[in-house]
Amino acid sequence: MEKDNVVEIPIPPGIPQSVIVRVMETCGVDYQIKKDPILDREYPVLSGYPEQIEDAKKYLKLFTEVKLALRDIALLGRKYRTVSKIYTEDEELRYILSVASQDIANREWIEVCEEKPTDGECETLEICGKKVYIYV
């Protein structure tokens, strides 16, 4: 990357490493640890071209929201001993759901569906403005 076109954004505290790695793979950005000489602290940043950084901001939020939602769904599925079928009409969100479901514990209680299930009760969640349907 050329130094003059590279943009950096600090990563907020509390973002899981798995989310950062998925964003790096999806957007093609780099991960670095920078040192602040004034505060004498190290902090993580994502660096890349401006269009990559804009995508990274969007995906950072989306992957984090999806991972938190899937974690809760998987815990409830384990508690009630039932597999939750997850469906969304949005292709991008379906891809993120399938990728993020590989990074959570109790993933055997979650199934990301390509087609809308016809049986079971349905609950609707909204993740970053996109509807997700959960069938149990």
Describe the SSE topology.
Blueprint (H helix, E strand, L loop, with lengths): L6 E4 L6 H11 L2 E7 L4 E8 L1 H30 L4 E4 L3 H10 L9 E3 L9 E6 L2 E6 L1
Parallel strand pairs: 4-5
Antiparallel strand pairs: 1-3, 2-3, 4-7, 6-7
Helix pairs in contact: 1-2, 2-3
Description:
- This protein has 136 residues and is an alpha+beta fold.
- Helices cover 38% and strands 28% of the residues.
- A 4-stranded mixed beta sheet has the order 5-4-7-6, with helices on one face. A 3-stranded antiparallel beta sheet has the order 1-3-2.
Features:
about 140 residues, alpha+beta, 7 strands
Mean pLDDT: 91
Q: Give the ordered list of helices and strands.
A: EHEEHEHEEE
Assess the beta-strand content as a share of residues.
25-35%
State the total count of DSSP E strands: 7
Provide a short characterization of the protein structure.
The chain has 136 residues and is α+β, with helices and mostly antiparallel strands. It contains three helices and seven strands; from the N terminus they run βαββαβαβββ. A four-stranded mixed β-sheet has the order 5-4-7-6, with helices on one face. It has a three-stranded antiparallel β-sheet with strand order 1-3-2.
